[in-house]
Specification:
2 helices, mainly beta
Length: 228
């Protein structure tokens, strides 16, 4: 936790100095409660997602995907995460309903070592099923499964970025030809407009694996200069 808080404090200081219009961060797990979250049907979260004694949000058993009540357009999201052995999960954002499904770009979270033959576009911090990493020089920094990793997602206008333990992994523009080609080669190729809507909810996914989150903070970047 100390490493996250040190980086997080620095981000607040730098962000406030360079973006006077930026809002303060909101704790999406404040008071060890799920006041900011709902099930897809709009009902309260009553099972599966529970808080451990140390305050971490833990998915145990079937809990369904959960969505924020609020929609976010441009934002900076920080979070600590842990995944179970052979586990698979992720955080989706700018989530909207396409037909009967809630869809959005996804920051993938999984035990990558357990799936050596799986597509690299499904590895942790990838833009799930679209982009493995935006440049060959972008490297994942893995920690033991028992340790907390730090993730970050920044979305501003048509630019989306993912970090994993301080390393930039994804830096994509949703209006680019590269993004269009990635969507057309993915499972979302028949979903018109996928990934290009300008706002949506944050979703913690339930893919049938245990996953843990803590220190989930978000701030609104609407009206701010581009965050470096």
């Amino acid at each position: 936790m100390k490493s996250f808080l040190a980086v997080f404090a620095m981000c607040i200081i730098v962000g406030n100095a360079g973006n006077a219009g930026a809002q303060n961060y909101t704790n999406l797990l404040q008071d060890r409660a799920l006041h900011h979250w709902t099930l897809p049907a709009g009902t309260p979260v009553e099972k599966g997602w529970v808080f451990d004694p140390d305050g971490a949000l833990h998915l145990v058993g079937k809990g369904d995907n959960i969505l924020t009540h609020c929609e976010y357009q441009n934002f900076d999201l920080w979070f600590d995460f842990r995944i179970s052995e052979k586990g698979n999960s992720g955080i989706k954002y700018r989530v909207q309903k396409f037909g009967t499904s809630w869809l959005g770009p996804e920051y993938q979270i999984q035990d990558d070592a357990a799936f050596p033959r799986q597509s690299a576009k499904h590895q942790t911090a990838s833009l799930y099923d679209l982009v493995d990493r935006s440049k060959p020089a972008f490297e994942r920094r893995y920690l033991p499964l028992s340790d907390w990793s730090v993730g970050r997602i920044i979305v501003q206008n048509n630019r989306i970025r993912h970090w994993m333990n301080g390393n930039l992994i994804i830096d994509e523009h949703t209006e680019s030809q590269h993004f269009s080609d990635a969507v057309n080669a993915s499972k979302f190729k028949n979903t018109a407009g996928f990934g290009r809507n300008s706002s949506g909810r944050i979703m913690l996914t339930d893919h049938g694996s245990e996953v843990w989150y803590r220190n989930v903070f978000i701030r609104n970047l609407n009206g701010c200069a581009m965050v470096p």
